[in-house]
Amino acid sequence: MNEIGAQLLYEEHPSVKGVYADLSSGVPEYYATCPECGNVHGMFSSVQDAVNNKVCGGCRFRRIHDFKSDLEKVNDRPKPPKPGQKRKLPWPLSVKEALPAPDSDPEPEPTDLDSEELVNMIHVSWVEKAANELARDNGLDPDNDVVITDADYDEDYPDTSTKVEVEVGGTEYTFYKDEDEIIEEVVKSLVQQIWDEPENFAPWMTKQHIDTDKLRRVINSGMDEDDIIEDPWDWLEGVYGDEREVIKQAAKMVNIDADAMARECIRYDGWQHFHGRGEDAIELSDGVVAVPT
Model-level pTM greater than 0.70? Predict the structure, then answer.
């Protein structure tokens, strides 16, 4: 099994040593490392199944085959002679010598813990890890000073959440799994602002995201043949004068590519410039970003 996206279960607990949990799909799947050949196999539904079936199918088959072969060798040896009959060969090996030796490291007894308890012992979600880090950085106790307040947070499938509200030391934060999550949120907000009030953005930026050819065609469609224009921006400035009003009227005639414009604004100024508390954002391990609310 490709071990990317899986993690070794609780190495210090002997009964689950060599058992893996794949948590990437949201529904845990378990795999075991065969103690004989080292092959990782499984897709077991629980840790208990993985522990009880560590030996892979190939090694189980080999065990049975070797055992049968050894038994056949024992049965093929000469039987003890009858009274008065000379034996041709020495008495066969003892049963202890004839049968396969037991494993030098016996399998540990199955644990009484269920799979959910074992996973919880070793798996900490990205938001818990980040919130605990922020608490420690501020001299707080993660066990007492971190509270996940997000009503939509699913404790059973925590890694499905990419944005979570958390209180750390009495301060509310929004934790984002990575910066891309914030950028997409800012893009949505900017797109709406561009549609509603395009004149509030830098005119040179807005002009770049309005199709000038299409704007010319729209204006000329209402002109007499003798009044056809070449530069729609010059014409609009001659009619409206104020640059903000020019942008506003042009946006009514031709749709702005608001998504592309929003992303370019972020590339120029950074998402922090367009986020209410962006300047107070805190970067944490694994790319997580915490923004005070």
Answer: no
User: Average pLDDT for residues 43-48, to the nearest whole number?
Assistant: 77
Provide the b/e sequence for 108-139 (b: ≥16 CB within 10 Å).
eeebebebeebbeeebebbbbebbbbbbeeee
Residue indicated by tokens 């959910």:
116
Q: Sign of dihedral through CA atoms 50, 54, 57, 61? A: negative
* Domain extents in the chain: 6-54+107-117, 58-98, 124-209+256-293
CB atoms within 10 A of CB 258: 19
Q: What pLDDT, in 10s, does the model give residues 192-247?
A: 999 999 999 999 999 999 999 999 999 999 899 889 999 999 999 999 999 999 99
| Direct distance between the N- and C-terminal alpha carbons of the chain, in angstroms, rounded to an integer | 42
| Gap between the Cα atoms of 109 and 48, Å rounded | 11
Q: What is the 3-state secondary structure (H, E, C) of 275-288?
A: CCCHHHCEECHHHC
Identify the CA nearest to 166 among candidates 54, 282, 33. 282
Cβ atoms of 181 and 130 within 8 Å: the answer is no
Angle at 20 between CA 19 and CA 22, to 5 degrees: 155
